[in-house]
Amino acid sequence: MTHIESDVTKCQGYANCVALGSEHFDLDDDGLVVVLREAVEDDERETVEAAVRSCPVNAIWVREG
User: Fold this and answer.
1) Could you tell me where the DSSP H helices lie in the chain?
2) Contact 36/42 with Cβ under 8 angstroms?
3) What are phi and psi of 19, to 5 degrees?
4) End-to-end Cα separation, the chain, in angstroms
5) 36-45 — which CB contacts under 8 Å span 24+ positions?
6) Once rounded to an integer, what is the mean pLDDT over residues 2-17?
């Protein structure tokens, strides 16, 4: 299974991930990424990977396992 991970110390609040994957990502009160659902189903993978690629500071990524 694919999982989402994040590093809020890198996040700058662009919210590109939220725009593309609002079921998995949100921003907290400080404007930093929050992963709403870490597990990614197969039918969601393409959308999540697009959201991950949209992050200009590489604050989110996916990993297998």
Assistant:
1) 16-20, 45-53
2) no
3) -60, -35
4) 5
5) 37/4, 38/3, 38/4, 38/5, 39/1, 39/2, 39/3, 40/1, 40/2, 40/3, 40/4, 45/2
6) 98
- Angle at alpha carbon of residue 29, lines to 3 and 13, rounded to 5°: 60
What whole-number distance in Å separates Cα of residue 43 and Cα of residue 31? 28
Amino acid (one-letter) located at 4: I
pLDDT in tens, 19-28: 999 999 999 9
**Count of Cβ atoms closer than 10 Å to residue 24 Cβ:** 22
SS3 34: strand
